[in-house]
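Sample 3 of the quickstart, ligand calcium ion:
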Amino acid sequence: MPQSRKIIIDTDPGQDDAVAILLALGSSELEIVGITAVAGNVPLKLTQNNARKICELAGRPDIKVYAGAIRPLTRELVTAEEVHGKTGLNGPQLPEPTMPLQEQYAVDFIVETLMREESGTITLCPLGPLTNIALALIREPRIAPRIKEIVLMGGGFFEGGNVTPAAEFNIYVDPQAADLVFKSGIPIVMMPLDVTHKALTSSKRIQAFRQLGTKVGTATAEMLEFFERYDEEKYGTDGGPLHDPCVIAYLLKPELFKGRRCNVSVETASELTMGMTVIDWWGVTKREKNATVMRDIDHDGFFALLVERLGRLN
Ligand code: RIB
Ligand code: CA
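Result:
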């Protein structure tokens, strides 16, 4: 058995974050060194609580969960209760967590882990605003060359934005943090709306989770039934995009995705396009190609992987 890949999941749960965390917990190829919560979909006190609820749902109270940034680097926090509900995890009735929240500040945990572990062995998986990642890079620039890869959900180009006409939520909430990360020189794989909008739930796909007949399967079905309604109404689709699990699925089966190396630049000046990720997909500029941008997904394969791996949990 090859050694499992060490990851830190940085997250703002969020039902789609929750499914991403469950996918990682159901996959022995991955070792979750820690989960760092960030303010995003809902305020930090809820995202850190939700992360612990999900770990306990999966029977993993041993996972270390850390609280990070309470707000973006410079801008006011924008949240998304209209999508995720007041708790950020509306849908299932999950018990309050009993596992502890780690004392250590998430940013310090990220820095300490990267400086301690062998260089090139830790993958960062941001699923929310990039505030924690940017703060870690500012706090200790020496971590940058030690990071194996950043595989993130965020941005959009051909698909436009989901929180403004130009910007996707994770980047919009903290554009300054995103700008710093995309200019860091760290290898980045990006899952923008252009690919996540092709990973749509459906009643049949949600039924497959329920048919697992487990706590995890039922809770996942309940989360997705709540989560999809917002995008169904907005886009007139049957089903909603399952954004964040694309990050973990890429680590497990990269062949599910297709994309190309591009330059990605983040708008941080104009309020009209604030947080827009300008993706030079056709290579019309001489800007450095700083990310592998995914645009296509084998969505049947993606959902089959999700059901199979979540089926390994209780
Ligand atoms: O725009 C989608 C992203 O914003 C997802 O990560 C979702 O959880 C929210 O954080
Ligand atoms: Ca998220």
